[in-house]
Write a structure and sequence with these properties.
GO terms for molecular function: nucleic acid binding. InterPro entries: RNaseH_sf. The protein is mostly helical. The protein has one domain (14-75). It is 71% helix and 0% strand. It has helices at residues 14-19, 26-42, 45-75. The longest helix has 31 residues, at 45-75.
Length: 76
């Protein structure tokens, strides 16, 4: 429960900081995986690569925001 509970100091859950998505129940995750597999089949490799790069950039930005929030919180 600790890992998926949003923390005020960082603005999101520790799980979300690490994986870039909110924690979901296994059933929802399984359905999302099926939708993802279908989307991958329909998409070209270049398009998939571009989406993955954008996802990783957003994840990095989110982590930098967490570092800023922690620094600000520690200075208080």
């Amino acid at each position: 429960a600790y890992r998926i509970t949003p923390k005020r100091a960082i603005g999101m859950s520790p799980f979300q900081v690490v994986y870039g998505v909110k924690a979901q129940l296994p059933v929802t995750l399984e359905l999302s995986t099926l939708h993802l597999m279908k989307a991958i089949e329909d998409a070209s490799f270049t398009n998939s690569l571009d989406k993955r790069i954008m996802y990783l950039q957003k994840l990095n930005e989110d982590r930098l925001q967490v570092v800023d929030r922690i620094t600000t919180h520690q200075l208080k």
